[in-house]
Structure formats: C-alpha cells, structure tokens
Design brief:
Distance between the termini: 79 Å
Largest sheet: 5 strands, antiparallel
Structural class: mainly beta
Number of helices: 1
Order of helices and strands: HEEEEEEEE
Strand content: 25-35%
Number of strands: 8
Shape: elongated
Length: 124
C-alpha cells in the first residue's frame, strides 16, 4: 500500500512539473452575455478619465454618485474616486458634500457638481 502511494506521488509530481494541469495561456473570462465579474462596477472606465491628481479644470470632473455613511456623513464618487468633505488631491479640494450636490474648489475657484437621475453631470 505504501509503495502504491509513493508511486502515485512520484507520477503526479512528474505530471504537474511537466505542465500537465497548468496552462500557460492567460485566463480569459467567457461572459456568455453576462457582466464580467472581474471588471469593477464603479470607475470601470477610470483609465480614460483624468486622474484627480492631474485635474486642472472642473470640466474634467464627473460626479458619479453620492452616498450617506454612518452618522449621516456623505461621500461623493468623482471620476471613480471616493471622496469626503475636506479631502484635497492635487488642485482639487472637496468643500461640501450635500444631498445631490458637491461643492469643490479647483485651483482656488469654486464649482458645484450636481447629480442628475441619468448619472453625474456638472453645473458650473
């Protein structure tokens, strides 16, 4: 019995080391009409948007959502980033997050972003 187990272990280790069960091809998800679970729901197109550190104009900002946390504190999702009042990133400073709007400053100039039903849109 012990000899059979040893032979099986040697054969299996030889099979695995030769790449028998491990594919060298990268994994490709077959969606079959479903959403790819490996793509984030929020900010999935963030690579095409300007990063918040590099913002030089309010025209580059997209308000994607506002959520309320514990104690009624609100957070904003702007260009795929989660931000709260007082956050400063590069030239961008979040001044106030309210129900449906965010007041912020870009390079010292104040703007108000308004969340609309169909998604985020900025008002200047």
């Amino acid at each position: 019995m012990r000899r059979t187990i040893c032979i099986a272990v040697v054969l299996l280790s030889a099979w695995f080391s030769s790449g028998g069960a491990i594919s060298e091809e990268p994994f490709k998800y077959q969606s079959k009409g479903r959403r790819d679970p490996f793509v984030p729901l929020v900010g999935q197109h963030a690579a095409s948007r300007a990063r918040l550190q590099d913002i030089s104009s309010a025209n580059e900002l997209v308000l994607e959502g506002i959520a309320s946390g514990a104690g009624g504190k609100k957070i904003a999702i702007i260009n795929g980033e989660v931000l709260k009042e007082g956050d400063t990133i590069g030239n961008l400073e979040i001044k106030k997050v309210a129900e449906g709007t965010v007041v912020l400053s870009v390079s010292g100039k104040d703007y108000t972003l308004t969340l609309e039903e169909g998604g985020g849109k900025s008002d200047r």
